[in-house]
Automatic annotation (TrEMBL), chain A:
InterPro entries: Bact_solute-bd_prot1, SBP
Lineage: Bacteria, Pseudomonadati, Pseudomonadota, Alphaproteobacteria, Hyphomicrobiales
Cellular component GO terms held in the UniProt record: periplasmic space
Protein name: Probable sugar-binding periplasmic protein
Domain of life of the native organism: Bacteria
Subcellular location: Periplasm
């Protein structure tokens, strides 16, 4: 009997020691365009080099609108992945409240993250009852106007430096057969109204609408200007000229087929891969060249609570991945490829290109609350439906648009 | 089994006993065999349906945890222009799709029935689209109808500079573009069903009609068609259920666009349940879909199966 006990103890010890060896960690994300894929490969590389664990890549198609539901239903349905990317914001709010996400507070304290996070407001969506449940890993902003140098060479005008100059150049562009505004079908349009709101409407307006849900602000003359700008875009965009993916718009800009586009800074990753150089092949205007603050959003990593009986090595791999994602080395490698801003202040960004340098200056003024941050996914979906309908149906007047926007904000949460 | 029968005959006087015997004992093995199926029906179909309806009256978001809020979700649903457009679209698509699938299916079956050569080859060709999923069908037709890459581009390159076929980009025509793809996929299947129905009609009837000098078309319309009632009912149910759950074709072909002009109810349900994390709103929409189906099915089922013993 005694001998058996010894053998059993040895066996457990043996098992225990092997269990912490290399594990496979499934990571889901929707980074599928060329620039994004190159960036996420950096995370995988650093993770595998530093820990010896295996990064099992589960890229999901369809971006936020297509991939988010898959991620959420896998977690709710009891088939959680090891780690997942989601947008920083309120999409995972209820998953956190239901206790489906792993509490990362210990790791956060151990790394002392409040020391180096660029903007504490980034951590707000990750915090619930004082505990931290996700790590934002980059800052993205939608608030960029991208302009094609080639297109403006063709019409012999200087590249605009503000939104108003850009709009004034549309007739000349159309005469030369150049698309004034390149646009991809589907979700890329959904971000544009928010950019106009931050750029044309200004910081006060976007705070009043997104954070305070102030209906009167929607009915104000400032918001009317925003709606009219959107109406202007609607005039020069038609279904025949739309391209399938946002990266195609990047190509249109580099080729000079389209003069401009409003899209998030991740477009830059694709522009770079296609060989574009900022300042030479394309120009970037943060906040439409009008505002001195950007709305912030970005991506965060969540680590779902794994079911009972999961190999402890996998849980250990989760912990190590969480540490690595926000480590200086991975942050630098990832964000340079992705075209986004790192969440750490203590990184040497002298390698960053001209556009990112512009963003870093604006970042010091603090972030504005984007729709992702301040509005529930339900409200965001309603606004997106409204915007897509407005774009597709010229019979909806600016007044009707404002009224419907107001009624959504009225019931927003 | 035999002694049960004896017992039953002994107590044949008591109505209650006979009722209990009939309910629980008679054909016992058949009843045991049917139990798993009955349980599945009760739990999965009836149970989940009731669950769906109940939670559509709550304010649940991502998880079904909300409180009862009465008809709020329905009020919001019918105030949403995207939902109303979706319902309209489904009515238009549905009526055209039902009529054309049945008419084309029948006509093709009749043509097949003319003792033509290579019939099985034709039948295979016509049935092939049905082997493709709606996603593949949608993608194929999206390419064909793409103005720059597809038919329009090809014709223009061949010299017809004014040839226009841009239904996918035209909010007024996009539903008919979906209809073409849907018909292409579904007609072959209905044709095969109808052909089986036509073949089941006795040759004697054809001979009798010929003796009476009735023209062939008349025989089809007035004699064969009414005899194929069962096949028609099957086809209507199959095509109809396909219409109500129309989703993947739209997602693959237009994703609801341009604007919201080709949205359908099932897509609304999916977007709000999973994308927007608003389960209650999605369930309210799916309850409305259920009610629509019931409005169609219940009167038909009553006519078909109601009035015991009247038929069959």
């Amino acid at each position: 009997m005694k001998r058996f006990a010894v053998v059993a103890a040895m066996a457990t010890a043996f098992l225990g020691s092997t269990a912490i060896h290399a594990a496979e960690l499934e990571v889901t994300h929707w980074w599928t365009s060329a620039g994004e894929a190159a960036a996420v490969a950096e995370f995988a590389r650093v993770f595998e080099e530093e820990t010896g664990h295996t990064w099992v890549d589960s890229a999901l198609g369809g971006s936020g609108t297509g991939a988010n539901p898959v991620i959420i239903s896998r977690i709710i349905g009891g088939d959680p992945m090891g780690a997942t990317q989601m947008n920083t914001g309120r999409d995972a709010e209820e998953l956190i409240q239901a206790g489906l996400m792993r509490d990362l507070t210990d790791i956060a304290e151990e790394m002392n993250i409040s020391e180096f996070y660029v903007d504490q407001s980034l951590l707000e969506p990750c915090t619930y009852e004082g505990r931290i449940y996700c790590f934002p890993i980059n800052i993205h902003s939608w608030d960029w106007l991208w302009l094609s140098t080639a297109a403006y060479e063709t019409i012999g005008q200087p590249v605009p430096t503000t939104w108003d100059e850009y709009v004034a150049s549309w007739p000349a562009l159309q005469e030369a057969g150049i698309l004034p505004f390149g646009l991809a079908t589907g979700w890329p349009f959904a971000g544009i109204p928010g950019v106009l709101l931050a750029g044309i409407g200004g910081s006060d307006l976007i705070i009043a609408i997104n954070r305070d849900k102030d209906v009167e602000a929607v009915r104000s003359p400032e918001f009317r200007e925003v709606a009219e700008a959107l109406d202007g875009i609607r005039q020069v965009v038609s279904p025949e000229t739309m391209v399938p993916a946002f990266a195609d718009v990047g190509n249109q800009l580099l080729e000079g087929e389209a003069a401009g586009n409003i899209h998030g800074d991740w477009l830059q990753g694709d522009l770079q891969i296609a060989g574009g150089v900022p300042g030479e092949d394309y120009e970037c205007l943060p906040a439409l060249g009008l505002n001195d603050q950007l709305t912030g959003g970005g991506d965060a990593f969540y680590f779902p609570v794994l079911p009972e009986g999961t190999d402890p090595a996998v849980i250990e791999a989760q912990t190590e991945l969480a540490r690595i994602l926000i480590s200086p080395e991975a942050q630098l490698a990832f964000n340079l490829k992705k075209g986004s801003m790192p969440i750490r202040t203590d990184i040497d960004l002298s390698q960053a290109n001209a556009c990112m340098q512009k963003a870093l200056v604006l970042l010091e003024n603090g972030l504005l609350p984007s729709g992702d941050f301040a509005l529930s996914s339900d409200t965001q979906q309603q606004l997106q439906d409204l915007n897509i309908e407005f774009l597709g149906d010229d019979s909806i007047t600016v007044d009707a648009y404002i009224e419907r926007y107001a009624s959504i904000i009225e019931s927003a949460d | 089994m035999a002694d049960y029968a004896v017992q039953a005959r002994k107590s044949a006087g008591g109505g209650l006993t006979r009722f209990l015997y009939n309910t629980f004992i008679r054909n016992l093995s058949a009843k045991i065999a049917a139990t798993p199926m009955m349980a599945t029906v009760l739990v999965v179909f009836v149970g989940c349906t009731l669950w769906t309806v109940w939670y559509s009256f709550t304010n649940s978001r991502l998880l079904p945890t909300g409180e009862f809020v009465g008809f709020d979700q329905y009020r919001r649903l019918f105030a949403t222009s995207r939902w109303n457009t979706s319902v309209n679209n489904l009515v238009i698509y549905g009526s055209f799709s039902l009529v054309f699938t049945l008419v084309f299916g029948f006509i093709l079956a009749v043509l097949m029935d003319q003792k033509i050569r290579f019939e099985s080859a034709f039948r295979t060709i016509m049935l092939y689209p049905f082997a493709l999923s709606f996603i593949v069908t949608g993608l194929v037709w999206q390419w064909i109808m793409n103005p720059t890459l597809g038919l329009q581009g090809t014709m223009r390159n061949m010299g017809w500079a004014n040839f226009t076929f841009d239904w996918l980009n035209n909010p007024r025509m996009v539903l008919y573009a979906l209809l073409i793809a849907g018909l292409w996929q579904g007609v072959g299947f209905v044709m095969v069903l109808m052909l089986a129905g036509l073949r089941s009609v006795d040759d004697e009837i054809w001979k009798a009609a010929r003796v009476d000098g009735i023209p062939t078309w008349r025989t089809y319309v007035s004699i064969v068609l009414p005899m194929m009632r069962g096949v028609f009912v099957t086809a209507v149910v199959l095509v109809g259920s396909g219409i109500v759950r129309l989703y993947d074709l739209v997602v693959a072909m237009t994703d609801g666009g341009p604007g919201i002009s080709s949205e359908v109810p099932a897509k609304y349900v999916y977007n709000y349940m999973f994308g927007a994390g608003n389960i209650a709103q999605g369930l309210a929409a799916s309850t409305m879909m259920l009610i629509t189906v019931l409005i169609i099915i219940v009167p038909w089922a009553y006519l078909e199966f109601g009035g015991k013993g009247r038929r069959s």
